[in-house]
Specification:
The protein is built from 19 helices and 7 strands. The chain has 425 residues and is of the alpha/beta class. A hairpin with a 5-residue loop joins strand 1 and strand 2. Helix 10 packs across helix 11.
Length: 425
């Protein structure tokens, strides 16, 4: 198994050309943001005749595709879209982000651009992930679960926490190529759970997993352990939402899915579900029934005992701690850091414009240096901003995610982050 490179330096000349074409369309969309000399308003619609012209120059969009794009962004300003881009990118390189869309659409620039735009609107506007998931902390859920004045909110918050506490879905360790491992234990699922709770849990896990993707690794290895699972408990709505996330909002997020010990009755369900899944995604799904089959993807010493592996590790949930999100209350500092993020983002757009226009090796080297510096600074800026915009989660409390964005998939169990915490089996 190999992980496809996702950095410009490891791309073919044709792939690099496609990346530049996609970036040129993004720059056109954001032209008023980085090209202030044009006296264009950043509050006007992002859908402009010049963008349509650029699309026709680089792709062959149909009328229906242009109509869909117009409907998507007609009411969006370039400035708003710029914020969507900064928020969605988080700690990652924007190049890596764009390359996922190119790969998901087989390097078709027009289709990749349409998918990219739709994904940013879907994540930031339709689902408002940063507010409803990233900043909607586990600690807040704990506090709301104890609130007697609003029983419905308390019930939903309790349900969300139970998804985490029981270990129904947890993240631990890496597979043979360094991808984070996410395990879903089907036997722990209880039917009739609110879709709102299930969807929040799905997005919570995805956004947490994105933070631990260390280049050049792409995607996660997910294991759906169906041992003891009753197919009558199958949640079709949640399954559809998870597929939507994989195919709409987070392309290339799924590296491989191992459906382990599926009962015979699941075959009928799988026939139905497979119709919802794009062929490329379906090709990453494998059925496993033995430990040896799992070990093709995960080394025995990295496979947890729950799955009959040799790693002496078992899931524990560390309860949220009062005060762990104190910096999120300091909105003044947050705004200063975010203003720096916008400035770095604008520098990246300007450097990218030079990178695309470069005609000599000297111009290209200069533009590359500017871009690389901006991408590094954007990464560092995110981890400075992180405690002001994101609630701490289990990975923070157990030392997987450490200060400054250091990632340790196998932290010392006696680390300081865990010594003063209350654990629940």
């Amino acid at each position: 198994m190999t992980v496809t490179p996702n950095t410009p330096g490891q791309l073919s000349q044709e792939q690099r050309h496609k990346l530049k074409q996609l970036w040129s369309l993004v720059l056109e969309l954001l032209d008023p943001v980085h090209n202030r000399n044009n006296n264009l308003e950043t509050t006007a619609s992002a859908y402009t005749p010049k963008l349509v012209e650029s699309l026709h120059q680089k792709t062959t969009p149909s009328r229906s595709e242009l109509k869909a794009l117009r409907n998507e962004i007609n009411d969006l300003s370039p400035d708003t879209f710029f914020e969507y881009l900064l928020n969605t990118t988080r700690q990652e390189s924007p190049d890596r982000l764009l390359l996922r869309f190119l790969k998901a659409r087989k390097w078709d620039v027009g289709k990749s651009f349409a998918m990219f735009v739709h994904a940013l609107v879907w994540r930031n506007q339709r689902l408002n992930v940063d507010e409803t998931v990233v900043a909607n902390t586990e600690l807040k859920a704990l506090q709301e679960s104890r609130e007697t004045s609003d029983p419905q909110k308390a019930k939903l918050s309790h349900g969300f926490l139970e998804q985490l506490r029981t270990g129904k879905c947890f993240m631990h360790g890496t597979d043979r190529v360094g991808r984070p491992i996410v395990v879903l234990q089907g036997r722990l699922h209880r039917s009739m759970e609110k879709n709102e709770v299930l969807n929040r849990g799905i997005l919570h896990m995805i956004e947490a997993a994105r933070l631990v993707l260390v280049p050049p690794v792409e995607g996660v290895t997910a294991i759906f352990d169906m041992t003891g699972f009753s197919v009558s408990n199958m949640e079709y709505a949640a399954a559809k939402f998870l597929i939507e996330c994989s195919q709409t909002g987070y392309p290339e997020f799924l590296g491989v899915l191992l459906i382990h010990n599926a009962p015979w009755a699941f075959s009928g369900i799988w026939k139905t579900m497979k119709r919802w899944i794009e062929p490329e995604i379906a090709s990453r799904i494998h059925f496993t029934y033995t430990t040896a089959e799992l070990e093709k993807f995960i080394a025995p010493e990295r496979l947890v005992q729950e799955l009959h592996g040799k790693e002496n590790w078992s899931f524990e949930f560390v309860e949220p701690i009062e005060g762990e999100n104190a910096k999120m209350e300091d909105t003044a500092t947050r705004d200063v850091i975010y203003a720096e993020r916008r400035s770095i983002g604008t520098e990246l757009l300007n450097a990218t414009s030079e990178w695309i226009k470069a005609k000599t090796p000297e111009e290209l080297d200069k533009a590359n240096s500017r871009r690389e510096a901006a991408i590094v600074n954007l990464h560092l800026n995110y981890w400075t901003l992180d405690p002001y915009v994101r609630g701490r989660n289990l990975l923070d409390r157990t030392g997987v995610i450490q200060e400054g964005g250091k990632i340790d998939f196998y932290p010392n169990p006696n680390s300081k982050s865990q010594q003063n915490s209350n654990t629940v089996r």
